[in-house]
Amino acid sequence: MTEADIRNELCIYCGQGQSRFCYAAESIKGEAFSLFYCLKCGTYFLSPRPDDRQLERYYDEAYYGSQTTKFIPAVEKVLDFFRQHRARHVCRFVRAPARVLDVGCGSGRFLKYLIERGYEGYGVELAGRAAERAAEVPGIHLKTGSLEKGDYPADFFDAVCLWHVFEHLPQPRKAVEIIHSVLKPDGFLFLSMPNIQSWQARLFRGRWLHLDPPRHLVFFSPEGLVRVLGEQGFQLCRRTTFSLEQNVFGIQQSLLNCICRKRELLLEFLKGNLSYTTGYPKGLLRFQQISALLTSPLFVLAAALESLFGAGGTMEMVFRKTDRPIVEGDRPAYV
Ligand SMILES: [Zn+2]
């Protein structure tokens, strides 16, 4: 690290102003951002921080999908398989009947599977197409907007889930404080997010799919996430960096980002985002889609290999609420 790399960018997590420049990245709209590492708390964050108006353009209809689902039907079927898998995962830790909050619940389909299994499903989702879809899930308790202090009573939930949502939050530390307060003693926090120290992140840097600037604002290494959440009263129960759903396509799309002039072309194609893929030959996109499908076994092996070293593209962790901060030396061995 040279002196030239040290900057005064304010950390999104702790608010301190001593950080190290990591690398630059371009968004799908061609805007320039940079990744920084906070020298105080070890959080990685995006800068410049997008303002609300800028973010609105990135969370438009093209992001959520204008149809009844976000992705094309074949992809939605695959995603439903993973949503059911997540529901079964939660069931292993928390027995029904129990209250589960899904922050950033999207279409609410993960909660739908929990509700069908006898759980009380609560969801929070920003206004828009996803929230409209979630509102149609029978039995769901939906809050449209962001998670705020006072939305729910203290010690209310048996589990809170953030499936690839934490990295989107403009005030992640405040969100963790609220979650700690609304969870019952010994309640569970399920959290998945990109692993900034993964092999794929270090290889592709600014072209990495899961960097997704500027929708993703905050990143951690697995150890960094365990440390900051530990300081806020969460004890790690389980962690993995293997995800068939996220990590295989993470490598494939990042590779494509290195050879195509626009990033995330295949992903946007699978979302049916025609305005983004206009001007790019449809035959080539179909070729990308078929190639990705045919080469999947190879990339499943690559994803398995990186996760064997704890360096998979995304991480999924389960924490338990404690009534005191966890300090170094308190930590359990990873299970
Ligand atoms: Zn910090």
- Output the CATH homologous superfamily: Vaccinia Virus protein VP39
- Ends distance: 33 Å
CATH architecture: 3-Layer(aba) Sandwich
Helix content: 25-40%
Could you report the average pLDDT, rounded to the nearest whole number?
92
- Approximately how much beta-strand content do the residues carry? 15-25%
Task: Give the overall shape, derived from the CA principal axes.
Answer: globular
- Ligand identities: zinc ion
Biggest sheet character = 7 strands, mixed
Please identify the structural class as seen in this structure: alpha/beta
Condensed summary:
By secondary structure, this protein is an alpha/beta fold. The chain has helices at 52-58, 61-64, 73-93, 109-116, 129-135, 172-182, 199-204, 222-231, 247-259, 265-270, 274-277, 282-294, 296-308, and strands spanning 6-7, 19-26, 32-38, 44-47, 99-103, 120-125, 141-144, 157-163, 183-194, 218-219, 234-240, 314-321.
Would you spell out the secondary-structure blueprint of this structure?
Layout: E1 6-7, E2 19-26, E3 32-38, E4 44-47, H1 52-58, H2 61-64, H3 73-93, E5 99-103, H4 109-116, E6 120-125, H5 129-135, E7 141-144, E8 157-163, H6 172-182, E9 183-194, H7 199-204, E10 218-219, H8 222-231, E11 234-240, H9 247-259, H10 265-270, H11 274-277, H12 282-294, H13 296-308, E12 314-321
Parallel strand pairs: 5-6, 5-8, 6-7, 8-9
Antiparallel strand pairs: 1-2, 2-3, 3-4, 4-10, 9-12, 11-12
Helix pairs in contact: 3-4, 9-13
Bound molecules: zinc ion.
Zinc ion (ZN) is lined by residues 11, 13-14, 16, 38, 40-41, 43.
Summary keywords:
335 residues; alpha/beta; Rossmann fold; seven-stranded mixed sheet; 12 strands; 37% helix; 21% strand; globular; binds zinc ion
